[in-house]
Design a protein that fits this description.
mainly alpha; 9 helices; 2 domains; 3 strands; Alpha-Beta Plaits; Alpha-lytic protease prodomain-like; elongated; single chain; three-stranded mixed β-sheet
């Protein structure tokens, strides 16, 4: 009866176990903390020595990322806890809470950069600004390269373990890299006699940061409110269920995303003349096939409806 089902190329990667998930996330977060501490200290000293207010502000921005990394560690540690009596479905949603907190921090960072930029443009006292030294330029370039590298390192590992909060932290690194680009343009412009370029560049950067904060927030909220899977994934699930031997119809299929995992409810039709043990075996095959082909599915509930066969209709 069943047709061969080939696992789709776009199927989610096999999520790692809780211990591996936490180990990778902690390692990435520790790298972020150490990197941000060293980088913020270097930028702060460079800003003071080279008389660059933009670089001092950028140093404070990098220091704030340390707080974000601690939020990631706490969120992932709590979300990786095993299911218990009070939380039978697990704690995956706690990581979404961490991502929401990070998105708010990212939004605040973007708004602060934009507000300061507008204030500097409106104030118009460009001649009063001190001309930054070459060390500030070196610090800005170092920050861009370092933060962009940290962005890709964190993003790759976030995709590897499918971590929402780690991905949010990656975009926080990117926001810092963009901030340093603004600082580089501003410092270079100031040295060439155009200090207002610093504020103009910062104003443009704030929009990119706010957009990243919005995307992170929206993704986390979707996972918090039991959003269904996308249409393509549901169609692949439907085909997988329908392809199993003994499944005559797929009467109902519903999905919901819980944290970074998927729950599936499905009703199938099977020959009503089969013994209970046989229909139970069909349901088990459907259950096992879905979990095999879709590793992100944490749980699937299979209900079997009896279907009248042609022989019954003839009688």
């Amino acid at each position: 009866m069943g047709k061969n089902f080939v696992s789709p190329k776009g199927a989610p990667a096999d999520p790692c176990d809780s211990a591996t998930f936490q180990r990778i996330a902690n390692r990435v977060s520790i790298v972020s903390i150490v990197g941000n501490l060293v980088l913020s200290a270097f930028k702060f000293l460079a800003g003071i020595i080279a008389h660059s207010g933009a670089m001092v502000s950028d140093a404070v921005h990098s220091a704030s990322d340390v707080f974000s990394s601690f939020i990631v560690i706490i969120g992932i540690r709590m979300s990786s806890k095993a299911s218990d009596k009070e939380h039978p479905y697990g704690h995956e949603r706690i990581e979404c809470v961490a991502a929401i907190v990070l998105s708010v921090v990212l939004l605040f960072t973007g708004l602060t950069i934009g507000y300061n930029a507008i204030q500097n443009i409106i104030r118009g006292n460009y001649s009063e600004l001190a001309v930054p030294g070459v060390l500030a330029l070196i610090a800005a370039v170092t920050s861009i390269v370092t933060k962009e590298s940290m962005f890709w390192y964190t993003k790759i590992n976030a995709l590897r373990i499918d971590s929402t909060s780690l991905m949010a932290d990656a975009w926080h690194h990117r926001s810092d890299a963009l901030s340093s680009v603004g600082a580089l343009i501003g410092i270079g412009g100031a040295r060439m006699g155009y200090p207002v370029l610093d504020s103009i560049a910062s104003l443009g950067i704030c929009f990119f940061i706010i957009k990243a904060a919005y995307d992170i927030f929206s993704d986390a909220i979707d996972k918090m409110v039991d959003h269904s899977c996308d249409e393509a994934t549901e169609r692949q699930l439907y085909n997988c269920v329908e392809s199993e031997d003994g499944v005559l119809t797929v009467d109902y299929l519903n999905t919901r995303i819980f944290g970074n995992r998927i729950y599936v409810d499905v009703e199938i039709g099977a020959d009503g003349n089969l013994p209970l043990k046989e229909t139970h075996k069909i349901a088990e095959r459907v259950h096992d096939s879905v979990e095999k082909h879709f590793p992100k599915v944490k749980h699937i509930m299979v209900h079997v409806n009896p279907v009248d066969t042609m022989e019954d209709a003839a009688v």
